[in-house]
Amino acid sequence: MRRFRPRWILLGVVLIVLAAVAGTLWQSTTQAKSSYLSTFNSLYGTAGTKLDSCNTCHITSAIRNPYGVDMEDELALGKTPSQALQAIEPLDSDGDGYSNITEINARTWPGDASDFPAPATPTPTPTPVPPTPTSTPTFVPPTATPTEVPATATPTATAAPSFVDYAVVALRTRGPGFANPAPGETKTKTHVVGVQNQGNVASGASVSLTVTPLNATCLSPSVIPLQPTSVLLDPGARASVSFAVIYSSCSDPSPDPDYEVIGAVSAAGDVDPSDDSLTVTQNAR
Hints:
Blueprint: H1 6-44, H2 66-76, H3 81-87, H4 100-106, E1 166-172, E2 186-197, E3 203-213, E4 222-225, E5 230-233, E6 238-248, E7 259-266, E8 277-282
Antiparallel strand pairs: 1-2, 2-6, 3-5, 3-7, 4-6, 7-8
Helix pairs in contact: 2-3
């Protein structure tokens, strides 16, 4: 009969222990995220609504949407989940023109620019009808026969010419709680570019994000789109595109800005390129 050697028994024990530890860590992470959703539902009374979902803050389990990015930034400052949620209530995380708290109260996604509250329909004000005056008979002398005047043609209204105009209306970068990665390590942060079709026709555009080091000791981060960068919007509509940015350590972070971040949109025939990008600078510390 073949006998098991002690070293194989030891290896089996180690694998079982590692599996147990991994399971514990996964369960702890899942419970932590579940507690955030419980806090959100308790604070806003959203249990059982469409906002009672991880999609309120996440694109995928590992990637946050614009609302989740703002939430993460507040948590990085040491705030509790409840404090972080309340701190970002006045923000418009997804850049759709409505504050986060307005969207939550309307039960629309605060992290999705394509989902927003329906505008209120104004109540028409009745026009007062003046009383009909009592007419007094008046003598009217005979009127001369009018001379026939040819009718004047009514001018045809000319439609406004169509035009294309996209603008970057929001740029979400890593928050103030970001810390320089340790040497040899990296940190991944979600950045969000919000755009709007300010033209008068439906048209397409391309959204981009670039991150350039201003400090020679910082490496160029990797920028990975998390959503399609091509958008097709109706006039006045907004959209947001998320990017994962992988930062490496700066060996000598300076008090001056270490990075320049540019969110841009490009559309064929854009009549006003002056609003096609937004730029921010940020430090590694």
